[in-house]
User: Fold this.
Amino acid sequence: MSERNLMGRKALVTGGARGIGAAIAAALARAGADVMIGDILDDVGQATAAALVQYGTQVGFVHLDVTDDGQWQHAVARTVQRLGGFDLLVNNAGLDVTALITDIEADGLRRMCEVNIIGTALGMKHAFQAMRPGGSAGHGGSVVTIASAAANIVFPSVAGYAGTKSAVERMTRVAAMEAARFGHGVRVNCIHPGVIATELGTQLAKDMVARGMAADLQAAQVSMVERIPLGRMGEADNVADAVVFLSSTQARYITGVGLPVDGGMGM
Assistant:
């Protein structure tokens, strides 16, 4: 989506330093939004933010561990101060630790729960507090959470990840209902990316090889593509375009949905 249909919007993108998050931040800036990147990767995040200056909008970076309530409070306050408002949160930060059921380790599962579930919940909490009437921004807005096609399909080695992303989808629906019923003026929607050609997508293929599910990396990638009706992996920009749409006035009557961006994998 190339038209600048988000002019005047003030966005915070978690996990925005690289990968899908960086693509989302760039797409929002191209659409005219001012963008704050929140991430634990300080150097990478600052470089990504600096690159967004080319789109002519305000940009910034704030250190944000999404599992920390206090850091969320600081990140939102910094966003409001730096951008002059806050009406769009993209809850993108996430963690994937793959393991077969027989190999699941508590530490990996616990960390995914902290980042994917607790991090998403805290993000919605602080977005609502800031965006609702009387909040530090106070003009309503939009929250987009990033779940996964893994919440809708069955695939070996992603039980823990799928469980956490299913939780993200459920929390999104509850949050959308609360935001509407309690007059927050905030729409809340969810995106389910499929296999995207990023570092995480490549790691999934490597894990398949390591677990004997494919002979080599190429075979693993072919196996994944065979599950996609459109016949190719997705790109980070495909997810970013969906975020722009759900954040725009074109989606002004859409809330509580889970939008697959997966080439048909979830059919």
In short: The longest strand covers residues 186-193. The helical segments are 19-30, 42-51, 69-83, 106-131, 159-181, 199-210, 217-226, 236-247. Residues 10-194+234-260 form a domain with the Rossmann fold fold (CATH 3.40.50.720). The chain has eight helices and seven strands.
